[in-house]
Amino acid sequence: MPTGRQAGASLRIDAPSPPLKRSDPQGGERVGWGPKGDPAVERELPAWLRVLGTGLSFSIFGLLCLLGVTVLFPAARLWGGREGGDLRVQRVIHHCFRFFMKTVEVLGVLRIRVEGAEALRGPGPRIVVANHPSLADVLLLVSQLPQADCIVKRSAWSNPFLAGVVRAAGYLPNDEGEALLEACATRLRQGRTVLLFPEGTRSPAGGVGRFRRGAAHLALRTGVPLQPVTITCEPRMLMRGVPWYRVPERAGRFVLRVEEPVSALESDGAERALAARRLTARLREGFQKRLVYTQT
């Protein structure tokens, strides 16, 4: 993992570093980064144990995908309620990812704090947009979203671990242009949540990358506000181009902060393209301001 000096910048989380109290979905308040009162997570593990824990985490994830495709997803489709099969599968994925992220915390690989998660759990429609600093971001967000239609790279459909998951959940490939926008708009009209990363790939080491305009076009077309979620990780881990076994000096502290929604003013005709550019620039500027980088 490159150090802050090697990368030219190191990330400082724009939040208090001492543990903060937060709501626990199971009741009561949670304090700190890990599961409530779990001493295994509170202590820092040596690097070699975190390498083993990271490798074990990838294995557990692969087993969860296999279990989902062979048992859980078919069962959800057969014995679910009135809602569509893809929605039932998405709820199963949500619970699997919650279990997985808690397991990774217990293994001491990373620590997680979520601020404002209740804003993600009410009824839709909702367009969730987030920056993308690490490989874990999709898992972190879906673990907080009871239902999410994810926009996924086309390569996932040929990945032996992910292909069955993305098909069963009805996720959408990110390379279909106008058809993708209309598919997302249709799901928003049904009161669903659409999750996408405007960068389209993991963020560069020095900040956020170039934002694509798909989220802005979708918001302008439907009138649904954008719901930004800022993800920070200190020290950085699971970055683009960095092997998974290159662990940082300590477990990464992930913070997911749900921000105020960004409204999209209606525009049409010749003004739509300009409005999309302006909204995309405003969205990216907001993420840049919330992510504080210190030059070294």
Topology of helices and strands:
Elements: H1 4-7, E1 9-12, E2 21-23, E3 29-31, H2 39-42, H3 47-79, H4 85-106, E4 110-115, E5 126-130, H5 137-142, E6 149-152, H6 163-169, E7 172-173, H7 177-189, E8 193-196, H8 214-222, E9 226-234, E10 252-258, H9 271-290, E11 292-295
Parallel strand pairs: 4-10, 5-8, 5-9, 6-7, 6-8
Antiparallel strand pairs: 1-11, 2-3, 9-10
Helix pairs in contact: 3-4, 7-8, 8-9
Strand order of the largest sheet: 4-10-9-5-8-6-7
Output the radius of gyration.
19 Å
Number of strands: 11
Write the H/E string, N to C. Answer: HEEEHHHEEHEHEHEHEEHE
Largest sheet: 7 strands, mixed
Q: What does the overall shape look like?
A: globular
Uncertain parts:
1-41
Helix content: 25-40%
In brief:
With 296 residues, the protein is of the alpha/beta class. The chain has helices at 4-7, 39-42, 47-79, 85-106, 137-142, 163-169, 177-189, 214-222, 271-290, and strands at 9-12, 21-23, 29-31, 110-115, 126-130, 149-152, 172-173, 193-196, 226-234, 252-258, 292-295.
Question: Can you walk through the features of this model?
Answer:
This protein has helices at residues 4-7, 39-42, 47-79, 85-106, 137-142, 163-169, 177-189, 214-222, 271-290; strands spanning 9-12, 21-23, 29-31, 110-115, 126-130, 149-152, 172-173, 193-196, 226-234, 252-258, 292-295. Helix 3 packs antiparallel against helix 4 and helix 7 packs across helix 8. 40% of the residues lie in helices and 17% in strands. The protein has a domain at 110-295. The strands form 3 sheets. It has a 7-stranded mixed beta sheet, with helices on both faces. It is of the alpha/beta class and 296 residues long.
